[in-house]
């Protein structure tokens, strides 16, 4: 079985494991106060050109989204997100469990537009009975989105502008951020992202680490007491250095960007060959997730040797499915997949 | 600096790191559905003589306590715990954040007694206006406690009996469970624990693992939908096998018990020598945490080379402090500490 | 200014005020344990032909919805509702504030269909990763809906069947229940409603009372500890008899039904005359809320003497608005409104 | 049966009922936006000499406490209160249900001292791991307390000073505020109270109204969006004028103070005569609640004709009980009670 069902089917990058071994006997203080976390923070702030930012390491994506969002909103506020956003669909109501509604906007491709946010805000405040409705309190987007698409610089600037005009902090879920940065059509640097939003995170779990997400808080007003929130939400890892060592390794010399690029290269290889074969795609993705629409019959046969995710029915006899590549994807496996799809058509 | 401030100052047991390296290239499914988690579950159920139990792997202690407790209680119920219990003091209100009060019982040594639970329950139900008060919904204890003490079999049997008579699930926080099992005066087996409570967890973070806690749900009624709760509370690790591999290693041939014993041996060595020196202890601990009462002057000097935790003032010139040993504690460091305390008295 | 903006612009039915005066000096116990509450419960159970039901009196609608829903769901569950449902739109996220997502279904007329519920449930359970999503835990509908429409007996039977097959309690928000019972096309009795759902409430605030909603719990499994939930959610009125006396008056001899009918008669009068005038309506309502589509120009003029609610733009020059009648609406005011609309067209 | 078990055994003051009748046919807008609420707000602000304050009307005490506290705290913060405080004991965990711990301080008489607050705050911030503990976020007291005692001006000034130095909003639960203001030893005016705290409420339910509490928000920073919080917590009464009319009546010419004084006079009459008889009291109360310690034998006999509340066992053969007077207490009933106690001793 060759796995393309998600981007966390392997362990961790070998350099990370090696570093864990080398540092294993060191004695350090806990909860992220150790030298490795310090170093990792410095590397990340440099990569983001955001020296005054606060950087915190959490374990996983749902935990990170919940902790950040719950730390920002007041009880009567909700978070604006795409209807397909991870927090709106795939976190078992973690946001609602902290008391907040997810205010969803329609989206065909996983992205939301500045004008949509603007309209939602205007509709809220123009309603005479607005206090009977959840007040928009912040905006959540993912880069790349759950559909593999990315925001361009101009799109993010527009969103950022509307958010600032409306007093809404902008939070970017970067669980797969490296894969967006490596996209052929990306024109956003880490520094742009740090500049345009209020808080974001750099995903490790899906890009080379065993686990771990690095939250970067740019907006001064959101920094206060954040470690309390992490602890309360169960994200303050006792052996915090495990996260520090991983991000130290990923960011000391650009490993994060290098392995992200590999994943995207593999995905684009798959996409381009299938496109040449006349196979349509559900979304135009330039990142590590690809959503070809294939005959159900072919998919049945593919399942014997490959794992992938069912996305949605396209018509009576075809379905959109998702193939994920990752930092660990072997070129030979992608080539084998391509050959098998060609053969089975 | 030699660290005794807590039991997670080092990385992971070398066999765990070795196993992570060996299995790193395997492709597996996520979220704890992989073969390593399966194997670890089988080992743990065998060790607990609890075949029908459900075993789940979570990342850390606060997360585990919150997830278990929130999955059991209805909105108007609270959890009974010692006033010194971890959930009552050191989790930034994580239980309250899920909507539930911690109903505290006084305790001198970290333990609560069956009669205390019985009385609290009777007082609640005998009050004519009981619906104006939080209803007791379950009982939380830790084995060993935050003070290093352990419940004997007869104490746990008595608690278990009262809980069952009162319809209150009994939950045991076993963040340091191995250290209790290795105590000289312990008469409880893992199987006894599984038999006497409804749900408990076996701590990995403090005993050999990088991170990870294994929840064992014994009571059939508490098993339903538990994975939803883990996901919602941010504890469903994407690369779940990281936890599975660690517990597989710890439980395949008794490593967990072996390294627990080492930690306790080191703590007892420290305790016995200091006791011979006439140094009093705040609690009678037979596990890996020791709480000697030492002159403040001496503590000031010790701080230069050792880390440990301040516990509480004993009198004007003395304080109780905590020294933790662990699976990774080096005998030579304990001996050095002993010599320095002797020398500095 | 003649008010049609909602159904609570006046005080209470004069018989209620009279009864409050008569009983004012009585001394009774608090929190709904007094003889008036007991009598009101008996009347209501009789009216519903539901002797074994539990009846509780709460103060307002949002409070009642929140209390009932939070008492039923487990933390990982959500409540299914129409996208236009009161809990989904107009309660400032009260349901989410108790930790639960509202799982919305599309609706053109405020009603949801049995097949929609069935499909949502099937989609949830057929998804391999269902534990990453909020589990459907109950169904909420309103009778009549926020759009003035009502469920027929066959529609409610179908919903009830799907709910029972799926293990989902069915909760009916009856804030305006009397107005549904009085509708010309209604074929559901109070007894039918009690038989087909698990819990519902009979609204007093909008139908003759100063305030108050009578919750009727039919499903035995939902009765346990409900008074704790009421108290926790702030709904256990100290002088509970104030609610008991009002419902006693409304249900001792059919006053509730009589005044409901008056409101509906007034609404139908308005609707029928405007329809004759060729004025279209946004929804086909047979209850006390009517939603004519009128020229914006005319609405501007009407505003000088009448209050009503803007609903939504119909086209560039027309808007749908809402006129509510109530138990207190004076026929002469409706006739004046009709004349003015006729005149201003 | 003559009732002294609580201060809400009767209906409402006759002038309130009369006013409700007189205004019953008026048509007004809902949710507290009507002229009666406006007038009541003006009267209350004048009585408090707090023109810039915001005044909101809620229905009951638990709801008010929950709404105010949840509107102020951030998720990781708790509210400091006496261990006997209403929010700590008698609200079924309503505060915890909104996610917040009640940080309790010991108290013999229901009051907390400025030094206790100061110490709790200092202990929190001096702990190196303070982020593992709930952060103190505000202070809650009641005036008078649940034990009938009152804060003096110097005590309240000291508390206020510590709160302001520590950045903790001070919230006063005034469910029985009138009875404190009428106490013989009271030296605090409504204006003092408004000046010394950040938010407080004036209780109507226990002092003449059918129901209703008037929240006065003095601190500018706490005013924002408060109506959203009221709505979300189920406290925004549709027919808000019902509350406005009651407070208008109570505050237009001092009725609130006059009837409060009557209740206190009746309580003091009872206290003084029993004291003369050599009967001890559990607390020294100068307000409407009195806690004599009486022989259990006598209490058994009293129960046949009087209702009162059991408080706690004093010794093997005596118990402290609570007698409440109110605005509606008849002097002849107090005299009868006194005679019966004298006779039965």
From TrEMBL, chains A, B, C, D:
Q: Which PANTHER family match?
A: L-THREONINE ALDOLASE-RELATED, LOW SPECIFICITY L-THREONINE ALDOLASE
Name the UniProt key words of this record, in alphabetical order: Pyridoxal phosphate
Q: Which InterPro entries match?
A: ArAA_b-elim_lyase/Thr_aldolase, PyrdxlP-dep_Trfase, PyrdxlP-dep_Trfase_major, PyrdxlP-dep_Trfase_small
- UniProt similarity note: Belongs to the threonine aldolase family.
Q: What name does the UniProt record give this protein? A: Threonine aldolase family protein
All residue ranges annotated as the Aromatic amino acid beta-eliminating lyase/threonine aldolase domain in the record: 29-246
Q: Which cofactor does it need?
A: pyridoxal 5'-phosphate
Stretches of the chain forming a coiled coil according to its record? none
What high-level taxonomic lineage is stated for the organism? Bacteria, Bacillati, Bacillota, Bacilli, Bacillales
Where does this protein come from, organism-wise? Paenibacillus terreus
A single Pfam family it belongs to is Beta_elim_lyase
